[in-house]
Every structure is written in C-alpha cells, then in structure tokens.
Amino acid sequence: MSKNQKQPVKLVPIPSPNIIPERDVDMSPILEISHLGIDFGGLTAVEDLNMAIGRTEIAGLIGPNGAGKTTVFNLITKVYQPTRGTIMLDGRDTAGLNTIQINKLGIARTFQNIRLFKDLTVLDNVLIGLHNEMDYHLAEAILRLPSYWRAERIARERALELLSIFDMQDLANVKAGSLPYGAQRRLEIVRALGTNPSLLLLDEPAAGMNPSETSELMENIQKIRDTFKIAIMLIEHDMNLVMGICEGICVLNYGKVIAKGTPEEIQANPEVIEAYLGKKKEAN
Q: In this structure, which CATH number among 3.40.50.300, 2.70.40.10, 3.30.420.40, 3.30.450.40 belongs to the domain 11-277?
C-alpha cells in the first residue's frame, strides 16, 4: 500500500440519521447537525441537512458549484445564523453563538480565498492564531511583566512547532505575502491549528496547488488528524484528494443531501454521477 492510500474504514449508523467511522462510535460526535436550513429572502440555500462528524474523522463535503457547501461552513461557524435546525458542537447547542465564541469552543477554518496578514511575517500570522492560548492580561503586556515575556516565549515555541508540520519553520521571518501560493495555503492551515481546534474546516485547501503539492497536502492532513487527534472536514473539488483521504463523504446538490457514504459508495452512486455529469439522454 502506497503512503497516500488510506486503510479502509467502516462507517456505522449512530442513533440519528447519520454515520461515523466505527472507531469513533463509542464517543459522541464532535459535530452533529439536525434538520439544518437557511433561506435568503425567498431562496432556500440549504434544506434539511443532517450529518455528523466523528471525533477523529476526515470527512468530505462535496457537490457541484453552487450546491451550498460553503454556506454550510458559514452556518457551522456562525457567519450565518440558520433559519431552522440545530448544530451541536461537542454536545453543546450552538444556537445564538457568534463566530468568536464558536472558535473558542473548538472550530477553526480556512477559506476559499486566502485570508492572511500578508504584510506580517509567517511567524506573526501563526502567533495571531494562538490568541486563544495567550495567558496574560493587558496590564501585564503594557508593563512588560515577566509573565508577559514567559507567555510570549511559549507562544513563539508553539508557533515554530506548528510550522514544522509543513517544514515551514525556516520561513518564520519571511513576509506571508511573499510566499508562493501553495505555501500561503499551508500557512493558513497552520494558523487555524493555532487556535487548538477539535474540528478543523478546510474550504478547498488544494485550490491552486500542483499535483506534487496536493499529494503532500494529503499526507499532511492525515498527519494533522493523527498528531492532534482531531476531526477534519473539507470542501474540495479535487476528487483524487477527496477519495484518497476522506472516510465519510456527504454530497450536496441544490442545498440538499443526495448521498452519504464511503468514497467507494459515493463513486458508485447514480444520483451523484448525475449531479456531476448530468442525466444521460435515452436513446430513441
């Protein structure tokens, strides 16, 4: 088995209309979504979405352009408030929470369009991501007390450790905006990890990457899951990446779930094939 091939994973039902990896079945899902929907004016963008993510699962959310995938991420992270339905994070109802509160509770994300502080260094970008772990008060920072310098030293060491996941520690003092596109993508993931998430949402992480970079990204996503023991859900159009690392996959079309299952089940699903390729015309 090559290094990019994953071990087969069995998906099992849990007490809901959802499935998670068998190894996570004795633990409550890190994320459980029930009957989620959102309307924009008279348009329903997401309708009756039910899904769960196991605590160590690498999950995929796929579908044609305009299917509602990023809208789902925006609902989970409270960029949008749902019109109906429930989002449970680690057993807690997230109704009424905002994006900052959601991040502190354990969800981090990256975006389709890179959102780095491009005039700051690579290291400074990661340090910003570590804000949840900074253990000093404003007065201590203003007065430059020993507790401030101790916290700063610990944060710097942690940032360099995170950068080493992608072998980027030697780029710590380089301006983020001067990095190649693929490296900026990797930096955004590192910064998200700095918030110490239990669920990492990756919105098209392979966008703009060449095949070699994508292959390396696959390895690193698996490494992140195994090292930090967290769940990862990604939106991605690169089907080789999705089928190569995702264990459970949820397929959206026009805001509705049309299929859930393993990569093998999704690849063989006629409704998924039709959504991507269109309905085959019958011969006269």
A: 3.40.50.300
